Amino acid sequence: MLEQVKVSNLYNLEQTIAAKIFEGVTYPWEVLSKIGDFIIELGKTLPEDEYIKQGEDVWIAKSAKVAPTACINGPAIIGKDAEIRHCAFIRGKAIVGEGAVVGNSTELKNVILFNKVQVPHYNYVGDSVLGYKAHMGAGSITSNIKSDRSLVTIKGDAEKIDTGLVKMGAMLGDNVEVGCNSVLNPGTVIGKNSNVYPLSMVRGFVPENCIFKKQSEIAVKE
C-alpha cells in the first residue's frame, strides 16, 4: 500500500495547473495545508488575457462558464473551459481544473480538482484531491472529519499511515469512478482506474484497477 498511495502512483501531474504544489511531496494529503497560500501566489502569475480576477483572490478563466447563481469564495482558481453550474458553492481554497464540472448544489472546500474532473450533482468534496477525469456520481460525498475528531489514518490490509490531520477527505487517483450516493470516509484513498459501486461506504485504501463492491469484496479488473 505504501507505494500505491504516493503522488507518483495516483496522479498525472501534467493534468493540473497545481503541479508545483506536489514538488517534494510523497503523499497527496501533505498538500492540504498549503492549498490556500499556493492559490494566492499562483493567481498572481496567471496571464491577464486568459484569466479575470474577481473579488478577493478569485481568478476565473475567461473561457470558463459560471452560472450567475454560483457562489465562489476565495482563494480560488477556476480553470479554462471549466463549468460552474447553478447554485454551486465554492467555499474557498479550491482549484478547479481545466474542463472540470462543478454541478448543481455541489460544495467544494480546500480541494484540488485535476483537469476534466466531474462533481456534477449534489456532491460535497472537502479536504480532498481528485485526479484527472475522476468522476463522483450524484449524491456521493467525501466525509472529511471523524466523529470523535481524532487524527485520520490511512488503512490498508496490513499497513496504516498516520496523516497527522484532523481533517482529510478522499484522495482519488486518475480516472476513478465513484457510484451515486456513496460515502468516502475520512482517509479514503482510491487508486487510479478503479470503480466504486453505488451506495457504497468506503473506508481506507482501494488499489488501482479494481472494483469496490463492498468493504469485504474488492475485485481486480480483468
UniProtKB/TrEMBL annotation:
Alphabetical list of InterPro entries matching this protein: GlmU-like, GMPPB_C, Trimer_LpxA-like_sf
UniProt-recorded Gene Ontology molecular function terms: acyltransferase activity; nucleotidyltransferase activity
Matching Gene3D superfamilies: Hexapeptide repeat proteins
Domain Mannose-1-phosphate guanyltransferase C-terminal intervals: 72-160
Transmembrane segments: none
Top-rank taxon: Bacteria
Key words, A-Z: Acyltransferase, Transferase
Presence of keyword Plastid: no
Pfam families found in the cross-reference section: GMPPB_C
Protein name: Glucose-1-phosphate thymidylyltransferase
